[in-house]
Structure formats: structure tokens, C-alpha cells
Design brief:
Strand content: under 5%
Keywords: Membrane, Transmembrane, Transmembrane helix
Largest sheet: 4 strands, parallel
CATH class of one domain: Mainly Alpha
CATH architecture of one domain: Up-down Bundle
Low-confidence stretches: 1-37, 340-346
Distance between the termini: 27 Å
Number of strands: 6
Structural class: mainly alpha
Mean pLDDT: 79
CATH topology of one domain: Rhopdopsin 7-helix transmembrane proteins
Shape: elongated
Protein name: Kif11 protein
Helix content: 55-70%
Length: about 600
């Protein structure tokens, strides 16, 4: 039996119950194949209709949101100009540019909703950052309001926006495999923010917070006191240590990826984008720090520095999230992690070709692979040297894990010269059998278990010539698009492979050889069923390709997909076997 996504032994019934009804009629098989293609065409047509409906709804919402955004941006500009007049070109330029840039940042999230996913933490935090940067409370028109309400001071707003950028960069580092570095930066940033908050509280007892936050008063070290000044220095140290650590990690990952990309232009462009991100990680806070100094010193041009910082932060948020630049950057970042040596390589799973013990009196010829723990016990039992002769057992079942072991390979059926076993035991499989859909919780995307699972999924798909489609952080609209495209490609692969099972049928040939050897040794054969379903789900050999018989048998079957073919072959050959419930398996191994 071929290896499969869940590690079960029986082949998954991806092709459902629409196999050919008979091996004997080529015309009937052709009609059934046409029906299958028609069914897939209907599915694709329904998906296309859903996409068109979603596109219309999105377009209508976009128009309303765009109108509201334009009015909001024009209102901010008018209010700023009304408050400042036209006395200073620099101040006027800043008052106009900031609303326009932040409005464009929000517009990107409005017009690229096909990329935005509510499941992506990076998308969520990027949108929050852009919306915070676009708040009008911090415009020139609100200067008088901020004096009365210090909570809306510009400096805390500036600090919060930069902290959000640090958090988003940490999310990227996690995707790149730099988990310890991301954790270190997170802890350091938290310490820096804590010390800064304490310093600001201490300063507020000596200096009105509104004055400090809006640059209306020149402040020196003597004005704030030594304790507060020390906390500010520590916060400064934590801030720049965090930023340079993030910058260095991004550059290191990008350099390693470029070296290992070997002509992969998509990876190369993503790596170059990482270099840009590394630059922005430093540039944004530098501009913010300069703006802060100008505010504290009460110098002219402080809002210009803040505007430049906002422009950089908007661009950084959009670049980090993938709303601009490479599409679905998180997946590219995880691939970069593998190339940089911080990912998870697919561990070598051990194939099992069966084991016939010549001294044994009994042989397990069919076992439900969904019971993984029991299967492992069976393999260990038949391989153990310490088992007594009375308890010795053979195991005819096989587990193929890669191309070398036979996964995705085919064997000729002597009853149908020139053809393999696939059409005899599966019929013409559906195109969806060539599509491997894996759903991953976004919160678990970067866990070691998930990444190892995905590595195995991709390795299996490569061996079987399947497509892998990962449902993770895509929006619903984007997911429907990807699924429709994948189904079309799967249909092409299925037709190219003549409707044969992508997992192959070599497992059946190896299993049959093991059974023949066990029969020659006069071993007693044993078949195990799902718990509580002993004897249920059996089909004759000729019924394996009968859609109606398959559908009826699967309702309460006690056999896995490949087990059904195994038992059908035993009955066809007139080979006797004993049937067991899987819950009796341990007592069976113990000689009971």
C-alpha cells in the first residue's frame, strides 16, 4: 500500500465512487469517463460563477469605500490647510502629503482585497498599522485639541506605530525560521517599551505631557531627572539592539537564499525584497528618532520629519504584508527558511515491503492503516528476534514512502497485457485524485509539527505527480481562484496519465507476491477490520469498478480503500482467510 498524507496504509478514496462500472465494455467506460469530465466541468463552472458573483460584490463595496476614503482624505487636507494657512511651504507640503500617503495606504487594502486574509496575522497587523497612521487626531489641524487631551499626543502615536512595525518584522522572522531571534527581539522590545513608559510617566510629573508630546517646550536632561534619563537610555539601547538584530537576520536569510536559489527567479526576487525590508527596518525608526529629537528640542520642521517617517512606515507595512510586492510572501519566506538552513527537511520515512517469516504459522494479509499505533506494533512484532516460534507472525502488508520504494509506480497486470492494475482495482480515477489539498491553521503555520507535515505532503505529492494546494492565509476569494485553477491543472494531469491512480499500483504487486509466499508456506491468513465492523464492506473482484457497488459498500465498510482490493483478490483466487475486529489485534499478537 502506498504512503498517504495521514500516514494511513490504505489508499485514500480521493476518487470517490464514480469509477467505471465494468471492465468489459470500452464504450461504457468511455461514457463514464465523459460523465466524470462533465461533473468536473460543472464544479469548475460553479466555482467560476461564485468568483464572478464575489467579484461584483467586491467591486460595489470598493466604490463605496473609495468614495468615503476620498472624502476623508480631502477633509483632512482642507482642515490642515485651514489651520496652517500658506505661510510655510514646508509645513504646507507636510500637511498635504501625509493625508495623501496614508490614504493611498488604506486604498491598497481596499483595492487588493483579493490578497487580504483575515486569517493572516501579518495582514491584520499591517492593516491596523496603516489605519492608525491614517488617524486624523495627529494632523496639524488638531494641535489645539491635543493640548487639551494629552492622550492624543504625537509621540505616543509615533512610538506605537514603530512598535507595530517591530512586531510585524518578528512575524516575518518566525516564518524565516529565526524563532529564537524573533523571541529575543520580542522580549527586548517589550523591555524597551516598558522602560520608556516608566520614563514618560516620571517625566509627566515634571513637565505637562501635552507640551512634551507636541514640541511646544525645549527639554533637556536636567529637566527630566536622572532616573527618567537612565530609563530613556536603556529604552534607546533596547530599541536599536532590536532593530539591528532584525536587520541582520533579514540580510543573513536573504543572502543565504540568493546563494541557494540556483536560478529560481521568484525566490531571488523575494530575497531581494528582504534586503529592502532590512533597510526599511532601520530607516523608519531613524526618521522617527530624528522627528522625536526635533519635537523635544522644539525646532522648526518637526512635522516634516514625522511625515517622512509615516511615508516609510506605510511602505514598510504594505511590503511586509505582501499587499504589494511578491504575492503570498509568507509561503515564500518559509521556502527561504528551508534554503537558509532554518527550515525543516522532510525526514526519511522507512518503507516497509512486508515481512514473511518462514517459521510463522500465521500471516496478516490486510490491516486498516488508520490505526497507526497498532500498525507500528505489528511491524515491530514481525521484525523482533525475541518473539517465540509460537507467537511468530508474518505481515504481507506493505507501506511505500517514496519513488525508490515504489510510491507512484505501476506494475503490469498479466490479465490485461500492456496495462497496469490501476484500472482493474480503481477504474478511471477522478481528476481530483491528482489534487492534494492541505488545510493549515494560520496560527500553527510555523510550528515544527506543521512544517514537517507539509514537507511530507510535498514529498508524497512529488512522488505521485500530484498538485499540492495549501489552504492557509488566503482570502475566500483568492482561495476559490486558486482552487479553480488547480482543478483545471489536475484534470490535465489525469488525462495525461490515462486516469490511473497517482499513487500507483506497485504496492499491489508487492503485496500479492508476499501473499503467494505465505500461501506456499501454508500459513493461516488473517484480515483485520475497523472496530465494530468485522466482515463488512467486502466486494467481489468484478465489483471493484462498479460505482453502485462501491457506494453501497462504503456506507458501513469495515475495510479501507486498498483493503477492499486485497480482500477481493483473496476471494477471487479462492484463498481462505480468517476475519478479525481490530480491537482483538493485541491479543492476536500475544498468541490469543
Amino acid at each position: 500500500m502506498a504512503g498517504e498524507p495521514q500516514g494511513a496504509l490504505e489508499l485514500p478514496l480521493w476518487f470517490g465512487g464514480s469509477q467505471a462500472a465494468s471492465r468489459g465494455s470500452a464504450a461504457a467506460a468511455g461514457r463514464r469517463s465523459q460523465r466524470r469530465r462533465s461533473t468536473l466541468a460543472v464544479e469548475l463552472e460553479e466555482l467560476d460563477k461564485e468568483l464572478q458573483t464575489d467579484a461584483r460584490q467586491i467591486a460595489e463595496l470598493k466604490m463605496l469605500k473609495a468614495l468615503a476614503l476620498v472624502l476623508y482624505t480631502l477633509g483632512r487636507i482642507a482642515a490642515n490647510l485651514g489651520a496652517l494657512g500658506l505661510s510655510s511651504r514646508r509645513r504646507t507640503f507636510s500637511a498635504v502629503l501625509r493625508p495623501i500617503v496614508t490614504g493611498l495606504g488604506v486604498a491598497v487594502f481596499l483595492y487588493r482585497e483579493d490578497r487580504f486574509s483575515t486569517k493572516s496575522q501579518l495582514h491584520i497587523w499591517s492593516r491596523r498599522t496603516v489605519l492608525l497612521l491614517a488617524v486624523f487626531f495627529y494632523d496639524e489641524s488638531m494641535t489645539g485639541f491635543r493640548k487639551s487631551w494629552p492622550v492624543f499626543s504625537i509621540l505616543p502615536w509615533e512610538i506605537i506605530c514603530n512598535v507595530l512595525q517591530v512586531h510585524m518584522t518578528n512575524l516575518k522572522l518566525q516564518a524565516l525560521g529565526w524563532r529564537l531571534m524573533a523571541m529575543f527581539c520580542h522580549m527586548l522590545a517589550a523591555a524597551g517599551c516598558g522602560s520608556l513608559l516608566m520614563a514618560l510617566v516620571m517625566i509627566s510629573f515634571k513637565i505637562p505631557f501635552g507640551d512634551f508630546g507636541n514640541g511646544t517646550r525645549t527639554i533637556g536632561a536636567a529637566d527630566i531627572g536622572y532616573p527618567a534619563f537612565s530609563l530613556l537610555l536603556f529604552s534607546f539601547f533596547c530599541c536599536w539592539t532590536t532593530l539591528f538584530s532584525q536587520c541582520g537576520a533579514l540580510c543573513h536569510a536573504a543572502t543565504g537564499a540568493i546563494v541557494a536559489a540556483h536560478g529560481d527567479e521568484a525566490l531571488r526576487s523575494t530575497a531581494c525584497f528582504l534586503y529592502l525590508n532590512a533597510l526599511l527596518v532601520i530607516l523608519g525608526p531613524v526618521l522617527g528618532f530624528c522627528g522625536t529629537l526635533f519635537f523635544v528640542a522644539g525646532k522648526e520642521g518637526r512635522m516634516t520629519w514625522m511625515t517622512l517617517d509615516v511615508v516609510v512606515q506605510i511602505f514598510t507595512a504594505l511590503a511586509l504584508s505582501g499587499m504589494m510586492g511578491p504575492r503570498n510572501p509568507m509561503e515564500a519566506f518559509r521556502k527561504l527558511a528551508d534554503l537558509s538552513g532554518y527550515g525543516f527537511e522532510c525526514s526519511k520515512r522507512i518503507a516497509f515491503p512486508g515481512h514473511i517469516n518462514e517459521q510463522a504459522a500465521k500471516c496478516i494479509v490486510s490491516f486498516p492503516g488508520v490505526y497507526n499505533a497498532l500498525w507500528d506494533k505489528a511491524v515491530k512484532h514481525v521484525r523482533a528476534d525475541s518473539v517465540s516460534e509460537d507467537d511468530a507472525c508474518s505481515l504481507a502488508c506493505v507501506f511505500l514512502t517514496d519513488v525508490d520504494s515504489g510510491l507512484g509506480q505501476h506494475s503490469i497486470n498479466p490479465d490485461t497485457p500492456g496495462k497496469c492494475w490501476c484500472h482493474s482495482i480503481y477504474g478511471h480515477v477522478r481528476a481530483s485524485a491528482y489534487l492534494r489539498v492541505v488545510e493549515v491553521e494560520p496560527s500553527q503555520s510555523d510550528s515544527s509539527e506543521t512544517r514537517m507535515m507539509l514537507a511530507h505532503e510535498k514529498a508524497d505529492a512529488h512522488a505521485m505527480g500530484q498538485l499540492v494546494l495549501i489552504k492557509n492565509e488566503q482570502s475566500d476569494f483568492e482561495w476559490q481562484k486558486e482552487l479553480a485553477d488547480a482543478l483545471r491543472r489536475a484534470r490535465e494531469l489525469c488525462e495525461l496519465n490515462d486516469g490511473r491512480a497517482p499513487w500507483g499500483c506497485q504496492w499491489f504487486e508487492v503485496w500479492k507476491r508476499n501473499v503467494d509466499q505465505a500461501v506456499d508456506l501454508k500459513q493461516e491468513l488473517h484480515v483485520f477490520y475497523f472496530q465494530g465492523r468485522r466482515g463488512q464492506g467486502k466486494l467481489s473482484w468484478d465489483q471493484l469498478c462498479d460505482a453502485a457497488a462501491q457506494k453501497k459498500a462504503r456506507r458501513d465498510s469495515g475495510l479501507g480503500a486498498s483493503q477492499t482490493a486485497e480482500v477481493a483478490y483473496l476471494m477471487k483466487m479462492g484463498i481462505m482467510f480468517r476475519e478479525h475486529d481490530v480491537q482483538d489485534f493485541l491479543s492476536f499478537l500475544a498468541g490469543g
